[in-house]
């Protein structure tokens, strides 16, 4: 291993192996196979399990749902007291070595998601299909090559399925088919879909939007959206270039601040020019010069009284 001790070791529950690993690899994290421990439950606590239907549920919560060491110890001793297991030697030995198999105590060490020795066991079962205790040395070498060839073919098939097939989706939602795009948004720090990407005809308020009276016509809204899209694309390019160095960032930042001020001034002046200029005529009517045609009420005239 390049002269370095292993960072983590996963073995069966064995006292001799425990002491040997602690002596040879003092800096390695040793862990017992959780599967082998749980497999002994029917043998060691069969009567308790039979007489108490809720024992396994409480035991599993103690093992898997304890997020802190204090929480585990409290649940453990509550379980021991509830089912009167103070004299059980096997449980006492398990608690003595609890730091070697309880998941809560292993969170500071990377085990690649493994809590059992099943991976090594699967390799053993794999070679059991090719060799046995009566296999000669010559036959072993030949069968070993056959086993490796089969393994390589399995990996080739797995690679093919990875590249040229799609896993079945768990839901019919069209968003799930584009989940990779949402993952890109997350990596860029975008947690909300920009509003300009959501077409108004997709929303449930589409009727309200187009029925409401607004100062902008639909064509004006469309033109504004086009301008927004073009500016957004250029701003993205500017962000990439401006972030390459501190000098380019300073230029881009100051330029944006100055451009933003100019745009605000222009928009404010346009807004002021569009405000109606009103004047009073001699008849008491108010006339406003706007960009829209305003229909005024007709002047009231006195009619002749009927005789």
What's the short version?
By secondary structure, this protein is mainly α.
Task: Give the SSE map.
Blueprint: E1 8-11, H1 15-24, E2 29-32, H2 34-39, H3 41-51, H4 55-64, H5 69-82, H6 89-96, H7 118-128, H8 137-164, H9 174-177, H10 179-187, H11 206-211, H12 218-242, H13 246-274, E3 277-280, E4 286-289
Task: For this entry, give a set of tags.
307 residues; mainly alpha; 3 domains; two-stranded parallel ribbon; two-stranded antiparallel ribbon; 13 helices; elongated; zinc ion binding; zinc-finger; MULE_transposase_dom
Could you explain the architecture of this structure?
- The chain has 307 residues and is mainly alpha-helical.
- It is built from 13 helices and four strands.
- The strands form two sheets. The chain has a two-stranded parallel sheet. Strands 3-4 form a two-stranded antiparallel ribbon.
Global morphology: elongated
Strand content: 5-15%
What string gives the helices and strands in order? EHEHHHHHHHHHHHHEE
In DSSP terms (H or I, runs of 4 or more residues), the helix count works out at 13
Mean pLDDT: 78
Count structural domains. 3
Termini Cα gap: 122 Å
Count of extended strands:
4
Helix-strand category: mainly alpha
Largest sheet, if any? Answer: 2 strands, parallel
The order of strands across the largest sheet is: 1-2
Q: Residue share in helices?
A: 55-70%
Radius of gyration: 38 Å
Q: Which blocks of ≥5 consecutive residues have pLDDT under 50?
A: none
């Amino acid at each position: 291993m390049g002269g370095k001790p292993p960072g983590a070791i996963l073995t069966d529950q064995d006292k001799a192996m425990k002491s040997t690993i602690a002596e040879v690899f003092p800096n390695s994290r040793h862990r017992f196979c959780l599967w082998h421990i749980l497999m002994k439950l029917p043998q060691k606590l069969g009567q308790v399990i039979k007489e108490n239907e809720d024992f396994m549920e409480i035991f599993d919560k103690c093992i898997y749902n304890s997020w802190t060491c204090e929480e585990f110890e409290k649940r453990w001793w509550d379980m021991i007291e509830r089912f009167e297991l103070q004299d059980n030697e096997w449980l006492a030995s398990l608690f003595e070595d609890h730091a070697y198999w309880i998941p809560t105590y292993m969170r500071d060490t990377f085990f690649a998601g493994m809590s059992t020795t099943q991976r090594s066991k699967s390799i053993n079962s794999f070679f059991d299909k090719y060799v046995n205790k009566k296999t000669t040395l010559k036959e072993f070498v030949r069968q070993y090559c056959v086993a490796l060839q089969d393994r390589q073919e399995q990996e080739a098939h797995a690679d093919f399925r990875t590249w040229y097939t799609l896993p079945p989706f768990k839901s019919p939602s069209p968003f799930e088919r584009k989940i990779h795009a949402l993952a890109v948004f997350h990596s860029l720090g975008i947690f909300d879909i920009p509003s300009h990407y959501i077409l108004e005809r997709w929303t449930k308020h589409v009727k309200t939007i187009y029925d409401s009276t607004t100062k902008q016509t639909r064509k004006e809204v469309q033109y504004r959206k086009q301008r927004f899209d073009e500016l957004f694309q250029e701003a993205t390019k500017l962000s990439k270039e401006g972030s390459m160095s501190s000098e380019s960032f300073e230029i881009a930042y100051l330029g944006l601040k100055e451009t933003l001020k100019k745009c605000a001034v222009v928009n404010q002046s346009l807004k002021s020019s569009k405000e109606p200029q009103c004047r009073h005529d001699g008849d008491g009517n108010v006339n406003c010069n706007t960009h829209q045609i305003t229909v005024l009420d007709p002047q009231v005239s006195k009619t002749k009284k009927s005789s």
